[in-house]
Structure formats: C-alpha cells, structure tokens
Specification:
two-stranded antiparallel sheet; eight-stranded mixed β-sheet; 2 domains; Alpha-Beta Plaits; 8 helices
C-alpha cells in the first residue's frame, strides 16, 4: 500500500495513529502485491546505492515515516492505470521521476518569418529544413545541460535545471543561446546553397519555480514544465519583434546572471496576456 503524505507544522506532541496492514493487504489484488514488491526492491536498491534509479529523495515508504503534526493520507494507487503510470515514473530512463516543483530557466527560441518559409516551399523541403534545424539546436541544448520540452513549428521550448543541479541554470541558457546563434550562421550557409534563403532567430529567457514531471499520453512521453515562467518566457521572446532585439531576459532571469554580462540595455514594455509594465533586459553576447 502506498500513501502520499502532506505534513503540517512540527509539534512536540506525539499524535497516535494506527494502520491495519493486514486489512490493507487483503484488499489488494495480486498484481498490486507484486508491484508493491517492486517498489520495495527499488527502495532497498536506492538505499544501498544512492546513484541507482529509484524513489526521489523526498519519497519514502509509509513504514519508514515518522509522523509529527497534522497530515492528510490518501491512496496514490487505486487501479491498473495508476500502477502503469507509477512504474514508468520509477523506471530507469534518464530524466524520469515523480513530479516536483523546482527552480528552472525556460528558454524560447524562435525563427523569424517562419510563416513565409512554410508558405513558399514544398512540404518536404520545410520538414527537411526544420529537422536539420532541430537536431542542430538540440545537440547544443543538451551540451549545456538543457532538455527540449516542446517544439511547435519553428519554436523550441528548452528547460535548464531539470536533469541535474547546477550553480546557475540561467547562465547555461544564455550560453546555449550564444552557441545556437553561432550554429545558425553555419546553418544559413547550408540554406543559402540549397534554397537561397537564410534564417534569423529570437530568444527569450525567464527564471523561476515550475512543476516538472514526465507527462505521458501513452504514445508520447516528455519532460514538461507547468508554471507562469513558461508563459513568461514565451511573451519575453515575442517582445523581441517590437523592440528590434534578438535576446531578452526577464528581470528574474537577469538577477541570476548579475555580474556575468558586462553590458545590457533595459526595456520597459507591456507583454501580451500580462498586466502591468515589465522590465526586460537586452544583453550583448560576446563570442
């Protein structure tokens, strides 16, 4: 039997509680008992080898938990679909884990005038160009400890700080943009020879807390972020068009790289879908 705990404020008073394990076990189906054994094995493996795949550091079995303060207990696994989802969450695939809220940097990277490209060239050429573009940029993002969460036409959403803890996720995102802009110059040489065209790209970076998890539709699984910083990164990137810039950072993102960028320009502007005036920072990327 598996429970999700939400603890309250610690108290010096012990709160008595009883869990009838026998009643719980007898109510479980055979498959759930087998999967419970897999959970236990996973737990023991992680205890003996912290680097092995298993439960995240904030997850413990109920029998390993000491209760202090008010708690709420409910079953996290109640049917076959729940079992399937949980087993994938504790799988050994890179980046697979239970949902959690962490601080990350979100990057939107977008091609200018993509609509003209899509309407001018045959479908095969458009798909071929974009696949080459995605693979080129994905390599750079991975080299800077980022992960592509989503692509939509010409746009890339990349997350930094998801796969491993590092001192400055925003700086990783900025360095990735610098290398992506360099790669775009080389990519344009290819496009000029093959199609007689070239790309320009714009980028927006924000920083803050987001809920991170592997979201699985059955046919597709990906690491995604839920939170306002993702929407903000999109709006910051879109602001490049009106401001005539190529890279903008939100105020929270700029604070993370204070002292690392010698020159910057501050723009005060409204953002689509947001209320109030936002301070955005245009930075100069040195080679």
């Amino acid at each position: 039997m598996f429970f999700r705990f939400r603890t309250g404020i610690d108290s010096t008073k012990a709160i008595p509680y009883n869990i009838n394990i026998l009643d719980i076990l007898t109510s479980l189906q055979e498959k759930l008992r087998v999967e419970a054994g897999r959970f236990w094995s996973c737990f023991l493996l992680q205890r003996s080898n912290p680097d092995s795949p298993g439960f995240p550091e904030h997850i413990r079995l109920a029998c390993q938990t000491k209760i202090r303060g008010d708690i709420t207990i409910k079953r996290a696994v109640i049917d076959e679909l729940d079992i399937e989802i949980i087993l994938k969450q504790i799988g050994d695939e890179t980046g697979t884990y239970f949902g959690k809220e962490i601080e990350i940097a979100a990057l939107f990277f977008d091609i200018e005038n993509y609509t003209v490209l899509a309407e001018t060239y045959p479908a095969y050429d458009v798909v071929h160009m974009l696949n080459r573009y995605y693979q080129t940029m994905n390599k750079i993002i991975e080299d800077h400890d980022g992960v592509i969460s989503d692509v939509a036409g010409d746009g890339i959403l990349a997350l930094f700080g998801v796969l491993r803890k590092k001192p400055n996720h925003t700086w990783d995102a900025v360095c990735a943009v610098r290398e992506m802009q360099k790669a775009l110059i080389r990519f344009n040489d290819y496009l000029e020879k093959m199609y007689g065209l070239s790309f320009r790209a714009r980028a927006g970076i924000s920083f803050g807390k987001a809920i991170i998890g592997n979201f699985d539709t059955g046919q597709m699984s990906k690491i995604s972020a839920i939170g306002d910083i993702v929407n903000l990164a999109s709006r910051v990137e879109a602001a490049n068009k009106n401001l005539g810039t190529s890279l903008l950072l939100s105020e929270s993102a700029m604070k993370q790289i204070s002292g690392k960028v010698p020159r910057h320009i501050v723009h005060s502007t409204r953002l689509k879908g947001k209320s109030g005036i936002f301070r955005l920072y245009e930075i100069e990327l040195e080679p």
